[in-house]
């Protein structure tokens, strides 16, 4: 560079260009290194270069340990908003497949007189990263290493990002000032697979399935399938379907798109919404059976109820607004396998329902909903997880009694959890467990009564026969389960 300065200063303009070319040739001969620069802004629109950002992220993982002078930047939407990267004129080394290379952060000299459209100060020179390596490794670096850095940088940014929970806006708001199809808030659900109450074996099966999916990029490419997986979660209310979705999102480090189908006007809108989802996302349709008239049975039921019941004006309004959604079963199926496949990147789709039998088999067949997961009533193994979560106990002398009761009652994990929550500040473990036992016992009694009632119903013709015979009425006394015969 010193040579160029001398040429600039002492030689006439006519000679300068020729001299500079020859000097460069000599330098190239003596200097066996190749340099590549990555400017921060590229193109006419002064857009921040994706490569620069990825390199910065990649280097911030290593350079924050190696560089002596660091620069702190507040990065939006990151889990850790303060990111440390190497300061201007700092240099760090990196190694790739045994080859050593150097990264330097630099800044061109600023030109205070230049007029700039950039909202960055014109006094601030243009930043760039400079990569230096020996020319004999040119192929390795330009092909494999740079690709590795860019991919790794993006991966780190995704890992460190603040995850979001998106909900779809009604299409009437799409064309307004904001034009956004999805609204989002920060996703901060604390559920994890450790805190999820369910059989350990089942839990491990789901975790393994997720891990296989996450690592399956090449596999999916090889078999020619879109990198997506569908889960159907079904079970009674309060058994942990929504909790499991949160646990899955936390485990996979994915964003969640909560798709409210009743707010989607038609199949075209559904497609537009989908296209705007990002990679590494879970798309959730909760209570799929209630979202739309997607099943034959549902249509039939509705028609029947229309014939039978006089319309409540409020209900009518609600139904009318539901009717305004024209998303069809085939639209939804296309959404799952057609358009969906066109979107690159890993995506999981989850449907939840309380009534799996009501769903159209086409919607949940393997390939669309690859894995069907039943979430069921709380048994002892699941209870132990809740006891650990809520009371921090692994064992207790009341556990065997609870285990027996859980075998004969159908209570949801949500009910168990509610009973395990201390009702006042000083409530101890024993009191909480006793309150659960009490709740389970009354549930057991109720189900016994219900069982008895059912049997009574079956026997009813004989009782009625008896009644006819001797002129008595039959009365079921709820609570003790006795059948009274009382005179008229
Ligand atoms: N399996 C579970 N493990 C841990 N907590 C659970 C579990 N099931 C339910 N809970 C607790 O009960 C509450 C309700 O559970 P959740 O919302 O996940 O049920 P759901 O199956 O989605 O119900 P719904 O069908 O009504 O949507 C949760 O906030 C959680 O605290
Ligand atoms: Mg739910």
From TrEMBL:
Region (Disordered): 298-323, 442-488
Cofactor(s) required for function per UniProt: Mg(2+)
Polar residues biased stretches: 462-472
One of the protein's GO biological processes: response to stress
GO MF annotation terms: ATP binding; ATP hydrolysis activity
AAA+ ATPase domain mapped to chain residues: 227-379
Basic and acidic residues bias: start-end ranges: 300-323
Domain of life, source organism: Eukaryota
Keywords, comma-separated and alphabetical: ATP-binding, Hydrolase, Magnesium, Nucleotide-binding
Family annotation (CDD domains): RecA-like_BCS1
Family listed: Belongs to the AAA ATPase family. BCS1 subfamily.
Protein name listed in UniProt: AAA+ ATPase domain-containing protein
Top-level taxonomy: Eukaryota, Viridiplantae, Streptophyta, Embryophyta, Tracheophyta
């Amino acid at each position: 560079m010193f040579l160029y300065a001398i040429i600039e200063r002492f030689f006439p303009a006519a000679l300068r260009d020729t001299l500079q070319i020859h000097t460069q040739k000599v330098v190239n001969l003596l200097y066996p290194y190749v340099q590549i620069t990555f400017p921060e802004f590229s193109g006419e629109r002064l857009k921040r270069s994706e490569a620069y950002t990825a390199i910065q992220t990649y280097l911030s993982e290593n350079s924050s340990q190696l560089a002596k002078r660091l620069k702190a930047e507040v990065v939006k939407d990151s889990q850790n908003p303060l990111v440390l990267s190497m300061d201007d004129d700092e240099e760090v080394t990196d190694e790739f497949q045994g080859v050593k290379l150097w990264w330097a952060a630099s800044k061109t000299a600023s030109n205070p007189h230049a007029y700039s459209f950039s909202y960055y100060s014109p006094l601030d020179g243009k930043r760039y990263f400079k990569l230096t390596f020996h020319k004999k490794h040119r192929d390795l670096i330009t092909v494999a290493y740079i690709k590795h850095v860019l991919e790794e940088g993006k991966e780190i940014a995704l890992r460190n990002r603040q995850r979001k929970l998106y909900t779809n806006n009604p299409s009437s708001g799409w064309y307004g000032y904001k034009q956004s199809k999805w609204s989002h808030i920060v996703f901060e659900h604390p559920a994890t697979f450790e805190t999820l109450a369910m059989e350990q074996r089942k839990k491990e099966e789901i975790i393994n399935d997720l891990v296989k999916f996450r690592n399956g990029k090449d596999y999916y490419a090889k078999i020619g399938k879109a990198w997506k997986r569908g889960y159907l979660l079904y079970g009674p209310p309060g058994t942990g379907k929504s909790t499991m979705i949160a646990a899955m999102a936390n485990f996979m480090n994915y964003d969640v798109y909560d798709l409210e189908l009743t707010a989607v006007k038609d199949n075209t809108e559904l497609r537009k919404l989908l296209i705007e989802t990002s990679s590494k996302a879970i798309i959730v349709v909760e209570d799929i059976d209630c979202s739309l008239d997607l099943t034959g049975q549902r249509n039939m039921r509705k028609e029947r109820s229309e014939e039978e019941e006089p319309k409540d004006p409020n209900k009518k309004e609600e139904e009318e607004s539901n009717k305004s959604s024209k998303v069809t079963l085939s639209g939804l199926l296309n959404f799952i396998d057609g358009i969906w496949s066109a979107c690159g990147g890993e995506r999981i789709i989850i449907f939840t329902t309380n009534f799996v039998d009501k769903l159209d088999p086409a919607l949940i067949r393997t390939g669309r909903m690859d894995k069907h997961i039943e979430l069921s009533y709380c048994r002892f193994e699941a209870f132990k997880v809740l006891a650990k979560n809520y009371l921090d106990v692994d064992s207790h002398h009341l556990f065997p009694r609870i285990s027996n009761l859980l075998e004969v009652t159908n209570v949801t994990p949500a009910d168990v959890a509610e009973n395990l929550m201390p009702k006042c500040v000083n409530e101890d473990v024993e009191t909480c467990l006793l309150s659960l036992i009490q709740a389970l016992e009354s549930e057991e009694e109720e189900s016994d009564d219900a069982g008895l009632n059912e049997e009574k119903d079956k026997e009813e013709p004989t009782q009625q026969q008896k009644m006819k015979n001797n002129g008595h009425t039959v009365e079921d006394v709820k609570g003790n389960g006795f059948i009274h015969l009382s005179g008229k």
